[in-house]
Amino acid sequence: MNKLSVLTRAFSSSSSLNAVKTVTVVGGGLMGSGIAQVAAQAGQNVTIVDLKLELLEKAWTSIEQNLTRVAKKVHKDDAAKIETFVQDAASRIKVSTKVEDGVNADLIIEAIVEKLDVKQELFNKLDLLAPEHTILASNTSSISINAIGAGIKRKDRFGGLHFFNPVPIMRLLEVIKGDQISEQTYQTMMEWGKSIGKTCITCKDTPGFVVNRLLGPYSAEALRMYERGDAKAEDIDLAMKLACGYPMGPFELADYTGLDTKKAILGVMLEATGDPVFRPIPVLDRLVEEGKLGRKSGEGIYKYEK
Ligand code: 3HC
After folding, report:
1. Domain 212-297: CATH class, spelled out
2. What is the CATH number of domain 22-204?
3. Ligand 1 centroid vs 157 CA: distance in angstroms?
């Protein structure tokens, strides 16, 4: 299936929605805004919650831009339809700095910082405030779903929904089954993934799930090659694009998703598996310490124009 059919499928599936009609995304960063966008595109009412107003403003700008990109693809040169598509989807999105404003939803997805204690605190609060039927889900990329939900009562209505960057374009959704998820919750999550145009795969609550378990060692080894000076970053990237057909090389991808995110994922994976392939990488630590986080900060492995 190509990119356009993914976008079209998400758009045309809006009428066949059953269980999930209202979605709240907690966290207005890159992932959170992407998740909000695809849900709104599919006809669902969405609330984005973030404590920082400036992040919500940034999220709104990027959603409007990305909706326009999608609309242009779906409706080609039909300016009126493009405008209607963007306005319709945007009108379904609300933003708030208070989590209380987002608790009345069928599905609440957390996409905040990759820190276990911060996520646990949020879920404990959501568990108390959200209506009985609400499903809670984490977009964590590597932290254990069971650990995140350890303190909540509704363990049967809790799981992982792991998206990929850029959310509107990447076709995969990893649906993560915690130990106590009910069959009904799992099926609702799979159905919801389909309703927003994603292809879902299922994975147990295992470190890094499928994608990051494989991507982690790959990017760690690439960083070590670069650190040792075995080959230039540009050549390593070129090698993987031309030899393996990857759309981005390991450094382009790491800069794209963020070096701080990469470091956090490797740290969680090391703790969870004890596998030395995930051990700290001095060049990665140094770049993160210097604030060189990739595209978002203007410099990572590569330098970017503002
Ligand atoms: N919203 C809507 N459309 C978007 C978009 C967005 N956010 N970003 C890109 N697009 C569209 C563009 O409009 C363009 O459309 P067109 O083909 O009709 O012109 C198309 O996507 C391609 O974009 P660009 O021309 O800007 O650039 P590229 O052709 O280089 O593609 C890319 C960019 C889609 C990011 C591609 O390089 C890619 O697929 N890279 C790999 C990304 C990847 O591996 N993601 C997974 C990361 S791992 C992860 O997320 C896990 C987490 O836990 C960290």
Report:
1. mainly alpha
2. 3.40.50.720
3. 32
